[in-house]
Specification:
The structure holds 2 protein chains of 2 kinds.
Chain A: H1 2-6, H2 11-53
Chain B: H1 2-9, H2 11-43, H3 57-84, H4 87-119, H5 128-149, H6 153-167, H7 170-180, H8 200-232, H9 237-243
Helix pairs in contact in B: 2-8, 3-4, 3-6, 3-8, 4-5, 4-8, 5-6, 5-7
Classes of the chains: A mainly alpha, B mainly alpha.
């Protein structure tokens, strides 16, 4: 059973490739969300400032 | 169809519709990637030459494919933005760049990890496939740096669009590099004369992964373009209405 996971001498190469891929995909999702939240909160503060000036 | 495209091009419409599409694209992408990963790692038979080492194909090829597709999306969108002065197109180009850079990085790093046991080296300077893919990463960086350096959005759109279009020459070079020059890199696996050169049990997980990466890229691109649209339309009334519904104390 363990042999399936170890993949002979290639285990470290295969697993690190899949691991890095998972990390990069997660970074992409988190980055996109953070940027959106950042722009949203930035806009909200600006609009509030504008309204209080009026 | 034209009606739909016309509506999609209007920023408030795009903003609302994309919000509904993103979760579905993410979900479908995750399902396809899980299938591809499980089937690729545990069900696909071992390769005669590369043994279990060939399984890196299931992340490397989809990443490399998206790295080039993202550039085509970026260049075509930039071109549309230049010719028809469509703001949403420029937003698409700007959103595609950082994603393309990440997928290029992924293609390079997984390729390097694959190269080590197969070719005995992490990297080979001067290899046409490796070098042109590295150039792709620098083109994305150049595009993003140029945008970041110009404060005026309209000017940044134009200048970066020109760069994106000029750099598009590199995409066919990457694709055909293994045919035009001698390279360490192996030739195409799926798209070649006489059909795919691999066993169906190896092929289907790969197609699943490519589909999954494409769906995830679609979701990520829509998410980034939404942010870009919001940022660009910060003075528009629909944005103010959206963020500060009437009745809420200012």
């Amino acid at each position: 059973m363990m042999e399936i996971f170890l993949m002979g001498k290639y285990g470290a190469f295969v697993w690190s490739s899949f691991g890095i891929t998972a990390v990069v995909l997660i970074i992409c999702v988190v980055q996109a969300r953070r940027r959106h939240q950042h722009v949203l909160s930035d806009l909200k503060t600006r609009i509030k400032a504008m309204e209080s000036e009026q | 169809m034209w009606n739909f495209l016309h509506k999609m091009a209007s920023p408030p419409h795009f903003y609302g519709l994309s919000a509904k599409m993103i979760p579905w694209l993410y979900a479908a992408g995750v399902v396809a990637v899980i299938y591809g990963t499980v089937a690729g790692l545990f069900i696909a038979p071992v390769d005669e030459e590369m043994n279990d080492g060939f399984r890196i194909i299931y992340v490397h090829v989809p990443a490399a494919y998206i790295s080039m597709m993202a550039y085509m999306v970026m260049a075509v969108a930039a071109g549309i933005g230049l010719i028809w002065r469509m703001k949403l197109a420029h937003a698409v180009a700007a959103g595609a760049a950082p994603l393309g850079a990440w997928f290029t990085f992924l293609a390079l790093i997984t390729g390097s990890i694959w190269g080590r046991p197969m070719w005995g080296t992490w990297w080979e300077w001067g290899d046409p496939r490796l070098t042109s893919e590295l150039l792709l990463l620098f083109l994305y960086f150049g595009y993003m740096a140029l945008r970041a350096a110009i404060d005026d959005t309209a000017k940044a759109d134009k200048a970066s669009a020109v760069l994106a279009l000029v750099g598009a020459v590199n995409v066919p070079i990457i694709h055909f590099s293994v045919e035009w020059w001698t390279s360490l890199h192996q030739g195409p696996t799926i798209i070649k004369e006489g059909g795919p050169g691999i066993h169906p049990d190896m092929l289907y997980p790969l197609l699943g992964m490519i589909l999954g990466f494409t769906l995830l890229f679609g979701a990520l691109l829509l998410a980034r373009v939404r942010t870009e649209v919001l940022h660009r339309e910060s003075r528009a009334r629909w944005v103010h209405k959206l963020l500060m519904p009437a009745g809420e104390p200012g």
